[in-house]
Write a structure and sequence with these properties.
alpha+beta; four-stranded mixed beta sheet; 6 helices; 65% helix
Length: 181
């Protein structure tokens, strides 16, 4: 299993069996949250792909170059690089967005960090049956508790970022259509 747990110091077989049951329950719940985080991150990355595509290829969406750009380029760029490209585009610093969405890149980085930890780090189960994921040792808190509250906050943040990304896409498309007129 993809997690670490603190072993129960007992020779009582029934206690050990109950403990293992609790661990399996927590593991299944956390597995669900891990899948949710990764799936949500994929949707957010798709929004970033769309923003990058629309920014760089302004012509008709049915144009074959859109598909080629997506398949040949965007599918091979890491999320980290896509965030850097969006940062370079700088749409989050433009007049209609700067005050409201100035922290867009920072929030993207937070989601990316959580996604990476969910995908690459083992979980830890403490004696209290809470599921934890290790944080960087440079930070004061060493663990993040993985629970429904965590899932709810992640979902809220990711949906907010997708909504902002959609607004950026709309802005870019409107700007490009007014330039043609």
């Amino acid at each position: 299993m993809g997690f670490l747990y603190t072993p129960l110091n007992t020779s009582n077989k029934q206690k050990l069996k109950n403990y293992q049951k609790k661990i399996n329950t927590v593991y299944k719940r956390t597995e669900s949250i891990r899948g949710f985080v990764i799936n949500t991150s994929i949707e957010l990355e798709w929004c970033l792909n769309n923003l990058i595509r629309i920014y760089y290829i302004k012509e008709n969406v049915k144009d074959k170059r859109h598909i080629k750009f997506w398949v040949d380029i965007l599918d091979h760029i890491t999320l980290d690089r896509k965030i850097e490209i969006v940062k370079g585009i700088g749409i989050h610093t433009r007049k209609p967005f700067k005050n409201k969405y100035g922290n867009f890149i920072k929030k993207l980085r937070e989601v990316q960090e959580i996604r990476n930890k969910m995908a690459h780090k083992a979980f830890s189960i403490g004696q209290n049956m809470h599921m934890y994921i290790m944080k960087d040792t440079a930070k004061k808190k060493k663990y993040t508790i993985i629970n429904k509250k965590f899932k709810k906050k992640f979902k809220k943040d990711a949906l907010e970022l997708m909504d902002i990304c959609s607004k950026f896409i709309d802005f870019t498309e409107k700007r490009d259509s007014t330039k043609k007129s």
